[in-house]
Design brief:
The complex is a heterodimer.
Chain A (H helix, E strand, L loop, with lengths): L2 H25 L6 H9 L7 H9 L3
Chain B lengths: L3 E2 L6 E4 L2 E8 L5 H12 L4 E7 L4 E7 L5 H11 L3 E3 L4 H39 L4 H22 L1 H12 L6 H20 L7 H35 L3 E5 L5 E5 L8 E4 L7 E7 L2 E4 L1 H4 L5 E3 L4 E2 L4 E2 L4 E8 L6 H14 L5 H27 L3 H14 L3 H20 L2 E3 L4 H6 L3 E4 L1 H5 E7 L7 H11 L5 H10 L9 E3 L3 E6 L2 E6 L1 H4 L2 H10 L4 E7 L2 E11 L3 H10 L3 E5 L4 H11 L3 E3 L4 H13 L4 E4 L6 H6 L2 E5 L4 H6 L2 E3 L5 H36 L5 H29 L1
Parallel strand pairs in B: 1-8, 17-24, 17-26, 24-25, 26-27, 27-28
Antiparallel strand pairs in B: 2-3, 3-5, 3-6, 4-5, 7-8, 7-9, 9-15, 10-13, 10-15, 11-12, 11-14, 16-28, 18-23, 19-20, 20-21, 21-22, 22-23
Helix pairs in contact in B: 1-2, 3-4, 3-7, 4-6, 4-7, 5-6, 6-7, 6-11, 7-12, 7-25, 10-11, 10-12, 11-24, 12-24, 12-25, 15-16, 24-25
The chains are: A mainly alpha, B alpha+beta.
């Protein structure tokens, strides 16, 4: 049963990481356009330049 | 257009040398458009971000400050084949976006907590029947409490706040029983943990919260999408004004940048976007959008001009008294306020259900407690059982029953071209039994149309069209539109008050008044047959033609009205237009009940009269004069061509030239109401099964969890059926 001391915090930490990830993506505007995001994933010829890609993230703040 | 376009009003400066603008774009429907637009705009130099939002049909653009004129993006999008316009998200929209992300955050926290507590609960459930020692069980329960209490405090906020507001106003709503249930569940779980009991209900409380938040989010996202698209449409209508920025210098600016006191130029053929009074110029103006009267009235210095009126013949300088916000007559706004207040007494289905529900549940819990105490149980056990009843009956499925259906149906309506302004509009629309139509702009198309185009040879018609392109006059514009001509004739000169003339292969061509073209006789014949029409004559050498232009009924108006009548809905026309015009339209449509020359106040009086007879009225109208009637009616719809005020007042806005969406929307909402009622019964039925278990003291956490998620899933699955029904209708 000593293993619980180890496993329970581990499980909670993993869960909290998941939650943190969700909150981070929410704040980043990743849920703003659910329809478009789906299509973006399967569009194969999207020419995203280095500059555009970095400013997509920074431009949201 | 020669004047400069000034969109600086819409540009936001982000700091770090970047500028940002949001554009509403028309016609973006697929992934192809998305990459085409993003690629096309990124190709411009100095653009650092071009991102399409497919849900909202918008593009966000950022570029290095001072390097580009925003008008350049609009031109670029036009080259790519998309019409775009800058817009400013209205405050209400910004608040809703903020709320949506708060709800999602709450949902995330509640779901995280529910899952982890569930993970801790399963060992307890299985341990209770095998070999778990009480110390271990207490440890797991305390750990659950540690997660549940802060998580519930955070993610329960939307419900607690709303319940508190309701209680303080001595009212009750859906959120009151929800909040009581959750707080009780948590309080009892803590008590049970302190007393080393076998069961705690932390998992049930958090799962309940997660389900309810999901419902709340669905409800909110439905309205948000509509509002976003409606905002785009308002922007795309491209309401601009030509403002004087110097004594003789003009600039085309978006209407949001015009203020009271500014002076604007209103050219012939232009629709005013502001309220104000004429300070210079003589003209005739068409006030049909305001009053429903199709015949033009004279305007000169001192005449009041209202937003939505069409300037017909001469250029006017207008001093603005109100623009963008508040472009309405004081009387209309007063009538509107009264009408809106009257309607706010309507109680939504969900709240009506919860009014019945809350007392029943609370009484059942109280009786359970008293019953067990009388039966000889300890007060502790009696209270625990009573609280189990409260938890198990907590309106989880009830909270999802309505929003789930609303979301599915609004999505289906969206695809047929109907935008929903409020969730309860579905319920109100479903039980209308009389449809009242405005005529001008609602039953008829908002633009004028040529009625005798078939009498004219195609090549002549095209020549007329090219000549008509040179004129701003709305009658000429209607001819140009009908002919489909695209290249204006070169060297055309305007003869003030008479028409335009030019030369084709050495022969003079003229377009204008019948007397100007020597075609009085033909014109009189046409006017004799159809006194409602406006005429414009054409002369090419000795060939003469007269075009009759009039408002045309929407292409499927007769069919739409016939199907309303078939569906058992009576139809009536209330128009501010003159009697012959209304009579003619009513006869063509087979509508027996109609009234002409009706003022905005009269429209309200008529609707109130129908209401007193117990008739549920659907008002369909587009003009500013319809706005109070739209607000007073049981449910209301506006075409997308309507004035801002009418669109904002109407429950639903339909797109396109046809009336079919009106009929479809009624069908959708009837189907939706049926599903909502079914869902409420499903939720109630599920509780009826679970409550006896709880009263009997058999409500283990397992039973509670099964009852709660089972009923919620059932309700959602039932709501999805609206989708199937929707497809059959269209």
């Amino acid at each position: 049963m000593e293993v619980l001391v180890f496993l329970v915090p581990l499980a909670l930490t993993l869960g909290a990481l998941g939650l943190a990830g969700f909150l981070w993506s929410l704040k980043n505007g990743q849920y703003d356009d659910l329809e478009g995001a789906g299509w973006r994933a399967i569009a194969d010829d999207e020419p995203v330049s280095e500059e555009t890609a970095s400013s997509t993230v920074s431009g949201r703040h | 257009m020669q004047a400069t376009r000034d969109f600086s009003h819409y540009v936001r400066h982000l700091g770090s040398g970047l500028s940002h603008i949001d554009l509403a774009v028309e016609g973006v429907n697929c992934a192809g458009c998305m990459s085409k637009i993003e690629r096309g705009l990124s190709a411009l130099p100095n653009v650092t971000l071009a991102r399409v939002n497919l849900t909202d049909r918008r593009v966000a653009l950022e570029w290095k400050e001072g390097t580009l004129d925003p008008a350049r993006f609009i031109d670029r999008l036009a080259e790519l084949g998309y019409k775009a316009y800058p817009f400013e998200p209205v405050r209400a929209e910004a608040v809703e976006t903020e709320q949506a992300s708060f709800l999602l955050r709450c949902l995330g926290v509640a779901a995280f907590a529910a899952m982890n507590i569930m993970m801790l609960s399963i060992p307890v459930w299985s341990g209770n029947v095998t070999d778990m020692i009480p110390e271990q069980r207490d440890f797991f329960h305390w750990l659950s409490a540690l997660i549940a209490l802060p998580a519930a405090a955070y993610s329960g906020q939307p419900f607690f706040r709303s319940a508190w507001t309701a209680l303080r106003a001595r009212r009750t709503n859906m959120d009151v029983p929800i909040s009581i249930g959750i707080v009780m569940a948590l309080a009892m779980s803590v008590m049970e943990t302190i007393h080393h009991a076998e069961h705690a209900y932390f998992d049930a409380a958090l799962m309940l919260l997660a389900f309810l938040l999901a419902g709340r989010y669905l409800d909110q996202s439905m309205r948000r999408k509509t509002r976003a698209v409606a905002g785009n449409l308002a922007a795309l209508k491209g309401e601009t004004a030509t403002k004087f920025i110097g004594a003789d210098e003009i600039s085309v600016v978006p209407i949001a940048a015009v203020q009271a006191g500014d002076i604007v130029l209103l050219r012939p053929g232009e629709r005013s976007a502001v309220d104000g009074s004429v300070i210079e110029g003589q003209s005739k103006i068409d006030q049909s959008l305001i009053t429903g009267e199709t015949l033009p009235v004279k305007a000169g210095p001192g005449t009041a001009v209202y937003a939505g009126t069409l300037n017909l013949s001469g250029a006017l300088r207008v001093r603005v008294s109100a623009a963008s916000e508040g472009t309405l007559l004081a009387e209309i706004s007063r009538l509107l306020d009264n009408a809106v207040q009257a309607r706010s007494r309507y109680v939504q289905l969900a709240d009506r259900a919860s009014r019945l529900y809350a007392p029943v549940v609370h009484t059942a819990a109280l009786l359970t407690m008293l019953g067990w105490a009388a039966y000889g149980a300890t007060w502790h056990d009696a209270i625990v059982t009573a609280i189990s009843v409260l938890i198990i009956t907590c309106p989880c499925a009830l909270g999802l029953a309505i929003p789930a259906v609303q979301t599915v149906v609004s999505g289906a309506m969206f695809r047929t071209g109907v935008l929903l302004n409020s969730g309860d509009a579905i319920e109100r629309l479903a039980d209308v039994d009389r449809a009242v139509f405005d005529k001008t702009g609602t039953l008829t198309l908002p633009e004028l149309d040529v009625t005798n185009a078939v009498d004219v040879p195609q090549d002549v018609f095209e020549l007329v069209g090219r000549l008509a392109l040179a004129s701003h006059h709305p009658v000429a514009a209607a001819v140009a539109r009908a002919s489909g001509a695209r290249t204006p004739l070169a060297g055309v000169e305007e003869v003030a008050g008479l028409g335009v003339r030019g030369f084709v292969r050495g022969l003079e061509v003229r377009l204008g008044r019948p007397s100007f073209c020597g075609a009085d006789q033909i014109a009189n014949e046409i006017l004799h047959r159809d006194p409602e029409a406006s005429v414009v004559a054409f002369r090419h050498g000795e060939t003469r033609h007269v075009f009759a232009v009039r408002q045309r009924l929407r292409p499927d108006a007769a069919g739409a009205i016939a199907s309303l009548v078939r569906a058992g809905i009576e139809v009536e026309i209330l128009s501010g237009d003159r009697e012959p015009a209304v009579r003619h339209a009513a006869e063509q449509l087979g509508v027996h009940e109609w009234r002409a020359g009706v003022t905005p106040a009269d429209k309200i009086v008529r609707i109130e009269e129908l209401k007193r007879q117990g008739v549920k009225v659907l008002m369909v109208g587009d003009g500013m004069n319809d706005a109070p009637a739209l607000a007073a009616a049981h449910a209301s719809m506006s075409p997308v061509s309507a004035t801002h005020l009418s669109q904002a007042t109407a429950d639903l806005v339909f797109l396109g030239d046809r009336l079919a969406p009106v009929v479809a929307a009624i069908g959708f909402s009837q189907k939706a109401l049926l599903l909502m009622r079914q869902n409420l019964w499903l939720a109630a039925g599920y509780n009826l099964l679970a409550v006896p278990l709880a009263i009997a003291g058999l409500a283990t956490p397992l039973v509670a969890a099964a009852a709660m998620s089972g009923s919620s899933l059932l309700v959602i699955l039932n709501a999805l059926r609206a989708h199937r029904g929707a497809r059959e209708l269209c």
